[in-house]
Amino acid sequence: QVQLVESGGGTVQPGGSLRLSCAASGLDFIDFSNYCMGWFRQPPGKEREIVAAIDWSGDGRQYRDPSKGRFTISRDNAKNTVYLQMNSLEPEDTAVYYCAADSSFVVVRTAAAAYWGQGTQVTVSS
Questions:
Q1: Burial zone of 126 (CB within 10 Å; 0-12 exposed, 13-18 middle, 19+ buried)
Q2: What is the pLDDT of residues 79-121, one digit of tens each?
Q3: I need a surface site. Which of 10, 37, 116, 123 has the fewest CB within 10 A?
Q4: Neighbours of 59 (CB within 10 A)
């Protein structure tokens, strides 16, 4: 059974940075490389939304708002881990952040993704 565990959340001041990690267990590194990964977030009182997604090899990446360029998704298939580097954080980035996995690069960007983590809280506040 695939399990995803997020870590790296916390409280940071506006303008600060955080790096989230999502470790997958229940897969060997070959199986992990067959999955596309996504990061979602759910702000207080709002719907869950996609933040970024990365394909099997890491060459293909998509972002919710690429024009801002504040977030970077990456993966290390040898460690069964996907990362989300978040820079220049704003109070509007406050949310619970979730990672998701799916064999499809299309589906992983939707609520229909096959596997989900429990989430990690990110709070941006002065």
A1: exposed
A2: 999 999 999 999 999 999 999 999 999 999 999 999 999 999 9
A3: 10
A4: 7
Calculate the CA 87 to chain-centre distance: 14
What one-letter code names the amino acid at 26? G
Q: What does DSSP say about strands 120-124 and 10-12: parallel, antiparallel, or unpaired? A: parallel
Residue 70 gets the label, from left (phi > 0), alpha (psi -120 to 50) or beta, of alpha
Residue 6 has a CB neighbour count (10 Å cut-off) of 22
- Tally DSSP H helices, then E strands, for the chain: 1, 11
66: CB partners within 8 A, 6+ apart:
none
Token look-up 């090899």 returns: 57
Measure the CA–CA gap between 26 and 24, rounded to whole angstroms: 7
